[in-house]
Specification:
The protein has six helices and nine strands. With about 230 residues, the protein is an alpha+beta fold. It has two domains: about 110 residues, Nucleotidyltransferase, domain 5; about 70 residues. A hairpin with a 4-residue loop joins β2 and β3.
Length: about 230
């Protein structure tokens, strides 16, 4: 368990009551689960997070949870309990498997999931969840007066300074750069499967571009793709 984090609370007074969840029928399905940071609106100082559970069979969202603080293991427990007990697009049930990104904060919950006969698998990418997350962001952009700027594959004059970004938009996908006013910038690299990199901590545009360059360079390196 990650140090400095709230301890897991289960049972009476919480949403995650194992005796109740154990009574639910178990379906042979797999869910993708994650919390994603949301772009901050103008004048907003707090980063909000969107918790999602998405069923792989049809890519349907089962539950969502909005938070105005960094998610804890208790929030993950609440998110999963809601997906099992009150799914938006299905009947109440337990899944056979959960797919999550690696996060030390979640580990305390894994033994309890095992007791519910739910397997946990750590994944680098959650493509169905990314689709739902991107659809949610699209609705946010449509409601904004200052929408994100989408950059599609075009010849880049900045190719010398940002070779990884240039190679990405030439051959692999697109990038997005959004202004968060007082709170800086958010940048993303996306392809047909969703977002592969995101940074929302940069105060200046140059910092955001540098973070995007570094993130994409690492993406290429992990896949042994030469940046030219």
């Amino acid at each position: 368990m990650a140090t400095g984090q709230p301890k897991l609370k289960l049972g009476k007074g919480t949403a995650f009551v194992k005796t109740h969840l154990k009574q639910l029928r178990q379906h042979d399905d797999t869910w993708e689960v994650d919390f994603r940071a949301l772009p901050r609106a103008m004048g907003e100082e707090t980063t909000h997070y969107l918790g999602l559970v998405v069923a792989l069979s049809q890519g349907n969202p089962l539950v969502c949870l909005s938070l105005d603080y960094t998610p804890t293991v208790n929030d993950l427990a609440d998110l999963l309990a809601g997906a099992m007990r009150r799914p938006i697009t299905d009947s109440p049930h337990r899944p056979r498997q959960l797919l999550l990104r690696e996060n030390p904060r979640w580990e305390e919950l894994f033994a309890h999931l095992k007791q519910l006969d739910i397997e946990v698998s750590i994944q680098n990418e959650l493509p169905r969840l990314e689709d739902v997350y991107e659809a949610f962001l699209l609705q946010m952009r449509r409601a904004r007066s200052d929408p994100l700027i989408l950059y599609t594959p075009q010849p880049l004059e900045i190719g010398m300074a940002f070779p990884a970004i240039a190679q990405w938009v030439r051959s692999f996908g697109r990038i997005e750069i959004g202004s968060q006013k007082k709170h800086g910038f958010i940048v993303r690299a996306l392809n047909d499967t969703g977002s592969v990199f995101e940074d929302d901590k940069s105060v200046r545009l140059a910092e955001a571009m540098a973070a995007l360059e570094e993130g994409l360079a690492k993406w290429f390196q992990e896949r042994k793709i030469e940046v030219i």
